[in-house]
Amino acid sequence: METPFPPFEPNGPDDSARGPRLREIPLRLVFPNLITILAICAGLTGIRLAFENRYELAVSMVLLAAFLDGIDGRVARLMKATSKFGAQMDSLADIVNFGVAPALVVYVFALDQARSLGWIAALIYAIAAGLRLARFNVMAERENKASWQSEYFVGVPAPAGAMLVLLPVYLGFLGLATDRTFAYLSSIYTVLIAFLLISRLPVWSGKSEGNRLRRDLVLPMMLGVVLYVALLMSYTWEVMVFTVAAYLISLPFGARKWRRKYGTLTIEEPGIGDDDIGRHI
C-alpha cells in the first residue's frame, strides 16, 4: 500500500500538535528540588521509625527533615535556581515535615496513652501547621509587602513549631515517666503549640537587614555557636529542652518589642484576613 502524500502546508509544517519539545534542564535547577525530596524522605522515614519504636532515630530524622526543608530555598536562591515548580514542592514538603511527621511521632511516643484526646491533639497540631503554612504562602504572594514582614512572623513559624511540639519526646528521652498523666499534659501542650502557630502573635524573625552586630561581638558569637553545636552533639536532648524553653521565653519579649513600636499586642494587618482567604480557596 502506497503512503499518501502529506497535505500541502503553504506556511510550512505545523508542529503545534506534536506537543512540547524535550529540552535540557541545567543541573543547578534540579539540585534544590533533590534536597526537598530528601527532606520528604527523612520526614516519612521518621514516621516509620516511630511506629517501630525507634524513637531517637525518628526524632533525629524529623529534625533532619526540618533542617533540609529550611535550607533548600536558600540553596535555590544562592544557585539562582528558583522556580515555580520548586516553590510548590517546598510547600508540599512543609506540611509533611513540619505538620504530619512531628504530630505522628509525638502521638506514637506519648499521646496515644491519652486515647482519643491524644489523637485529637495531634490532629489539631497537624491542621494548625497546614493553616500556618497556607497563611505564609498567601502573605508571600502579596505584591505590596508590609515593612514589618522582614522583621516579624505572624505566629510561630512552622519549623519552630515542629521543634517545640516534640518537647514531650525530649523529656521522655531524659527519663521522665511517660504515663497517662504525662500523655494528658502532653496533649494540652500540643494544642497550645498549635494555637501559637495560627495566632497573630508577633514573633521576631531576626531577618531584618537593619540588624547589625558590633565588630567586637563577632568572635564571641561564633564561639558561642560552636559551643552550642558541641553541646548539642554531646547532650542532645538536654540542649533541645533548653532550646525549646529559651524559644518560648523569648516570645513575650518579641511581642513587647512589637507593642513598643506599633502599639498593639497582635499583628492586625489587612491582607491576611477574609479577603485573602476567600480569594485563595
UniProtKB/TrEMBL annotation:
Belongs to the CDP-alcohol phosphatidyltransferase class-I family. This is CDP-diacylglycerol--serine O-phosphatidyltransferase. It catalyses: a CDP-1,2-diacyl-sn-glycerol + L-serine = a 1,2-diacyl-sn-glycero-3-phospho-L-serine + CMP + H(+). The gene is pssA. The chain crosses the membrane at residues 29-51, 57-79, 91-110, 116-134, 154-176, 182-205, 217-233. Its EC number is 2.7.8.8. Keywords: Lipid biosynthesis, Lipid metabolism, Membrane, Phospholipid biosynthesis, Phospholipid metabolism, Transferase, Transmembrane, Transmembrane helix. The keyword Secreted does not apply. It is a multi-pass membrane protein. The keyword Methyltransferase does not apply. One of its GO terms (cellular component) is membrane. GO terms for biological process: phospholipid biosynthetic process. The lineage of its organism: Bacteria, Pseudomonadati, Pseudomonadota, Alphaproteobacteria, Hyphomicrobiales. It comes from Rhizobium leguminosarum bv. viciae. Its main location: membrane.
